Amino acid sequence: GAVVSQHPSWVICKSGTSVKIECRSLDFQATTMFWYRQFPKQSLMLMATSNEGSKATYEQGVEKDKFLINHASLTLSTLTVTSAHPEDSSFYICSAYRNYGYTFGSGTRLTVV
Amino acid sequence: GENVEQHPSTLSVQEGDSAVIKCTYSDSASNYFPWYKQELGKGPQLIIDIRSNVGEKKDQRIAVTLNKTAKHFSLHITETQPEDSAVYFCAASLGIHDMRFGAGTRLTVKP
Q1: What is the overall mean pLDDT for chain B?
Q2: pLDDT at B98
Q3: What is the CA radius of gyration of chain B?
């Protein structure tokens, strides 16, 4: 079945630094990937839609310059949290669309200290 | 856009009992309704889904029903087991874009 690999699974960084999260579709090509953010005990909130070869589409209220998304190939999308601050600490999850369904990565726990 | 409401927020059942989680959606154009199970610290895993041209779908102990007229769909888990304990999310989608999640239900199955 469709597998989406997300790395790293957790990361701790200092305030002001940038962190890159990778999302790979392992056995299929994903022209569209999605990035979600999840706070403790809350639902998944869509941040942006990543389109291969074009600019990402961001949801209202999500800062484009802070959450940089790159989808340079059909199997890889990256999310870079720039100039991270403690309030950016969260669980970030990617997903890919395939055959009329969605497959999720295992998530990345980001802690900014 | 689509708005999905999910109830209850928490559900506790005894092992062997059934569990039912209900969701409503707002956009009648939504045509895909998946259910996900999320364990602590992990990404959501698809457990069952249903499309708008079907009223019911079953996979072993799990079933989903869809009422398009009323715009609601439900997850049914029978013969619950402790390993069913997790957070369950419903979602509604208009297609490749714009999938929205419910708030989640924390299911606890007591042995």
Answers
A1: 94
A2: 74
A3: 13
Between strands A10-13 and A108-112, the pairing is parallel
* d(C-alpha B93, C-alpha A34), whole Å: 13
For residue A100, give the nearest of B32, B41, B45 by CB distance.
B32
Please state, in angstroms and rounded to a whole number, the distance separating the CA atoms of residues B94 and B111: 39
Written as six digits, the tokens of B90 are 């419903």
What letter does residue A40 receive in the DSSP assignment?
T
B29 close to B94: Cβ distance less than 8 angstroms: yes
Q: Are B91 and B34 in contact (CB under 8 A)?
A: yes
pLDDT tens for B51-91 read 988 899 999 999 999 999 999 999 999 999 999 999 999 99
B92 to A58, A73, B32, B71: CA distances (angstroms): 19, 28, 6, 10
pLDDT at A65: 95
> Which residue of chain A is at minimal alpha-carbon distance from B102?
A43
Task: Give the largest CA-CA distance in chain A.
Answer: 40
Query: pLDDT at position A1, please?
Result: 66
- Mean pLDDT to the nearest integer, B29-51: 93
Residue ranges in chain A whose pLDDT is less than 50: none
Kindly report the length of chain A. Answer: 113
B1 touches chain A (CB under 8 A): no
A37 to chain B: closest CA residue: B43
In angstroms, rounded to a whole number, what is the distance separating the alpha carbons of residues B46 and A29?
19
> And the tokens for B88?
């369950």
